[in-house]
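Shipment paperwork, digital attachment
Item: protein structure file
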Amino acid sequence: MTKARGTSVYEDRYVPVRHTAADTARLLADSAVKAAYDQLEEEFAALRALLSQNQPGPIGCNNPPR
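Attachment content:
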């Protein structure tokens, strides 16, 4: 990657965009988006199950170290 004069290396850095429940509601109000979302529900459920397995539990004396 060549750096042009006056530019920053950080210009290409990923900056996450916040997504709220209101954003989801607004998007799902569109029938085409809702239909596509509903078609993927099984995949979303599987992903949620996988992600929940990787969540650390509370830290305490009865829990194994992480």
